[in-house]
């Protein structure tokens, strides 16, 4: 079982925590993580893009000039794609980019991402990670103490003061553990959690 150090808000050692093998020492499955990240980014797309074809553009009912004997190429409409202000040929239309990923694949990818953070020593457990009022200076000082960069902070309960404090720090993101996803785990460098978050992850995924 992997063991990690627990630190306090000042970055000082405050004990050790033994992690579950099933959650934090799972086999690394790169294809599963790739599939889940691709699906996540695809599902973020709105798909509301739209262009007008020659049938949607106004005007163009009259033939610009007669078919023959003008010395110019024949034209049937001023709304042709080759005309200025004409329609768009083969342009994008509203569509759904949603990709389905099986639950077992999502679970495999999530456990792989968590285990990778632990193996790369980019996993920090903090006790007493709370503030009475928002303070960007305090959070930045803590991140410097634990050498955290581009951090993802996970909470099990209310972390509004930490979220307000960290939103001014570039690359730092705060979210509830219920919203955890593979993309944000891989997109961040350091993962900062509380003991309660570890317990919740083990409760859900160590089955």
Keyword list:
207 residues, alpha/beta, Ribosomal Protein L4, Chain: A, 6-stranded mixed beta sheet, 7 helices, 33% helix, elongated
Helices, strands, pairings?
Blueprint: E1 3-7, E2 13-18, H1 21-24, H2 30-43, H3 103-119, E3 123-126, H4 136-145, E4 151-155, H5 160-166, E5 173-176, H6 182-187, E6 190-193, H7 195-205
Parallel strand pairs: 1-3, 3-6, 4-5, 4-6
Antiparallel strand pairs: 1-2
Helix pairs in contact: 2-3, 4-5
Quick overview:
The protein is of the alpha/beta class. Helix content is 33%, strand content 14%.
Explained architecture:
The protein has 207 residues and is α/β, with parallel strands linked by helices. It folds into two domains: 3-45 and 97-205, Ribosomal Protein L4, Chain: A; 47-96, no CATH class. It has seven helices and six strands. The protein has helices spanning 21-24, 30-43, 103-119, 136-145, 160-166, 182-187, 195-205; strands spanning 3-7, 13-18, 123-126, 151-155, 173-176, 190-193. The protein has a six-stranded mixed beta sheet. Helix 5 links the parallel strand 4 (151-155) and strand 5 (173-176). It is elongated. The model has no long low-confidence stretch (mean pLDDT 92).
From the alpha carbons, calculate the radius of gyration and give it in angstroms. Answer: 27 Å
Helix/strand structural class: alpha/beta
What is the CATH topology descriptor of the largest domain? Answer: Ribosomal Protein L4, Chain: A
CATH class of the largest domain: Alpha Beta
**Shape call:** elongated
Number of strands: 6
> How many separate structural domains?
2
The major β-sheet equals:
6 strands, mixed
Order of strands side by side in the largest beta sheet? 2-1-3-6-4-5
Helical amount: 25-40%
Element string (H = helix, E = strand):
EEHHHEHEHEHEH
**What is the arithmetic mean of pLDDT?**
92
Low-confidence stretches: none
**Strand percent estimate:** 5-15%
State the helix count: 7
Q: Per CATH, which architecture of the largest domain? A: 3-Layer(aba) Sandwich
Distance between the termini: 16 Å
Query: What is the CATH homology-level superfamily of the largest domain?
Result: Ribosomal protein L4/L1
């Amino acid at each position: 079982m992997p063991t990690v150090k627990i630190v306090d808000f000042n970055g000082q050692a405050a004990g050790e925590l033994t992690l579950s093998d099933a959650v934090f020492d799972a086999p690394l499955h790169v294809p599963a993580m790739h599939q889940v990240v691709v699906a996540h980014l695809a599902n973020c797309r709105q798909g509301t893009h739209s262009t007008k074809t020659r049938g949607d553009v106004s005007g163009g009912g009259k033939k610009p000039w007669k078919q023959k004997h003008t010395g110019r190429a024949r034209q049937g409409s001023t709304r042709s794609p080759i005309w200025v202000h004409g329609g768009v040929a083969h342009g994008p239309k509203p569509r759904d980019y949603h990709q389905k990923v099986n639950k077992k694949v999502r679970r495999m990818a999530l456990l792989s991402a968590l285990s990778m953070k632990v193996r790369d020593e980019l996993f920090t457990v903090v006790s007493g990670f709370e503030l009475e009022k928002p303070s960007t200076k305090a959070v930045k000082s803590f991140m410097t103490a634990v050498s955290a960069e581009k951090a993802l902070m996970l909470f099990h309960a209310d972390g509004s003061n930490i979220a307000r404090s960290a939103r001014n720090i570039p690359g730092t993101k705060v979210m509830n553990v219920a919203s955890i996803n593979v993309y944000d785990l891989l997109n961040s460098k350091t993962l900062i959690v509380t003991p309660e978050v570890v317990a919740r992850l083990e409760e859900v995924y160590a089955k």
